[in-house]
Design goal:
single chain, 272 residues, alpha/beta, Rossmann fold, six-stranded parallel sheet, 13 helices, elongated
Length: 272
């Protein structure tokens, strides 16, 4: 998998100035047993209606049925909290330890596994948010607060009673809170989702390593395009064809058709 051409590309890139930029998606989390919530596991029943994740993960849905949206996110959070970091996550922790400020991790995943594995919040840009945090739904500030330990929704039919729902309030102003995630009817920004910072790192990167993402959202694709425009290579780690594999071919990089837990530990000596 790591042949002489890949080795030469990575080693040459690492001799250049600029950060090593990692971009991770759902594939690395799937190796920890977290299902893709756009698939069958993501559907949610309210009364007699079945909702697709793209219908629930919206500000519009939260405005209509905040209790049900919170119940769905609390269930998702319980699934994520039951998962453990895998060898791919741990390789990125070791890579940050070795590279220090040259390491930048951009993740689309909201499960918090990178932070739980040991990556720092300072060098981890969570561009879609983090399911372990909430913020004021009325936007009294951009402050993030940990989701309370209670209530926990471990089963799909677990109700969210009045007392449990009342606990999900902004500690600053007392009004309702919302999950700290980027919803489908919202846009990327810098204060909450670090969009400008992610693009800035992409323009300066010596090398982009993409791990387990299909490129279904526009900021990750813009990150890849910015690296390509700067003339720097892309290494794509993904068992399935995706836009980043094509970008890797165009930039003199490589597509490694492998899982993160297999490829990242093998790349680690070359990236540090």
């Amino acid at each position: 998998m790591i042949d002489a051409a890949v080795r030469a590309t990575v080693q040459a890139a690492m001799r250049e100035d600029g950060p090593l930029l990692l971009l991770t998606g759902a594939g690395i989390s799937a190796e920890s047993g977290i299902p893709t919530f756009r698939g069958p596991e993501g559907y949610w029943t309210v009364g007699s209606r079945h909702y697709h994740p793209q219908e629930l993960a919206t500000a519009e849905a939260f405005g209509r049925m905040p209790r049900e949206v919170w119940r769905w996110y609390l269930y998702r959070r319980a699934v994520c909290r039951a998962a453990a970091p895998n060898p791919g996550h741990l390789a990125l922790v070791e890579l940050e330890r070795r590279l220090g400020d040259r390491f930048v991790l951009v993740t689309q995943n909201v499960d918090g596994l990178h932070l739980r594995a040991g990556n720092s919040r300072e060098r981890t840009l969570q561009i879609h948010g983090n399911i372990d945090f909430m913020r004021c739904a009325a936007a009294c500030s951009t402050a993030l607060y940990p989701v309370p330990d209670e209530p926990v929704v471990r089963e799909r039919d677990t109700p969210l009673d009045d007392a449990a729902f009342a606990a999900l309030r902004c500690p600053r102003c007392g009004r309702p809170s919302r999950p700290h995630v980027l919803w489908f009817d919202e846009v990327y920004d810098e204060p909450l989702f670090h969009a400008a910072s992610a693009l800035g790192h992409a323009r300066d990167a010596a090398l982009l390593v993409v791990v387990g993402t299909a490129g279904a959202t526009n900021l990750p694709l813009s990150i890849g395009a910015a690296v390509a425009r700067a003339g720097r290579p892309v290494i794509d780690i993904n068992p399935e064809p995706n836009p980043f594999a094509e970008l890797a071919a165009r930039t003199g990089g490589a597509w490694l058709r492998a899982a993160a837990g297999e490829a990242l530990p093998q790349l680690l000596p070359l990236l540090s």
